[in-house]
Specification:
The protein is an alpha/beta fold. The protein contains six helices and 14 strands. It is about 25% helix and about 30% strand. It has a six-stranded mixed beta sheet with strand order 2-1-3-4-14-13. A four-stranded mixed beta sheet has the order 6-5-7-10, with no helix packed on it. The longest helix is centred in the C-terminal third of the chain and has 15 residues. The radius of gyration is 17 Å and the shape is globular.
Length: about 240
Amino acid sequence: MKKFVIEILYPEFNNLFGDRGNAEYLKARLEKAGCETEIIETYLFNEPNFVNGQTDILLIGPCTEKSQLTELEELKKYSDIIKERIENGGVTLATGNAFELFGEYIENPKGEKTECLGFFPYYSKQFSKLRFNDNAVGEFDGMKITGFKNLLSHAYGENPYPFLKMLKGIGMNKETKIEGIHKNNFFATYHTGPLLPLNPDFTEYLVKLCDESVVLEELTFEKTAKEKRIKELLG
């Protein structure tokens, strides 16, 4: 059985809503399945491990709007490598406003635009003050995905590779039920916080993308808790 390497990009900034829990949860479940697992933390201005090393699952979470622009300039250095990772099926999960980094640009309340990685044809617009909060349920590949949002922005424009179709809550913005990006094994979503612990079935799905031979122990209490949350949210 292979060794799993989980890489967290910029953990000193990208843990606003406990998103590091996604890595810890993955590690705990993989080790319980008998897999050797390593978490690599790549700090800002350091070269990411995925550039020259093994990264089975790459995680990038939300940060403040100020840090977001600094991180974006760092990621542009590795734009071609990131694009190649997406095209070659490298498993990647971007949560919260990290979703915005892969679009065309981010526009601040003054109308100033910052060019993003430009992999997908959507763009983001920031609000002036009030944050948007949402508890949500989306659907992907027959799975219901629960989560929440805490945003100072929405995304607009085309989305040729949607991740979720929302059953409760808004999509990229208030005018659509389409949310996030899913291309090959790349997943980006405005949902944030403990996305993987909230969705053990989606966690299993990501692991299978890396290695189909890995069988994670079924955790009945987690699935029961998820079913209860979905029932409460959908009524």
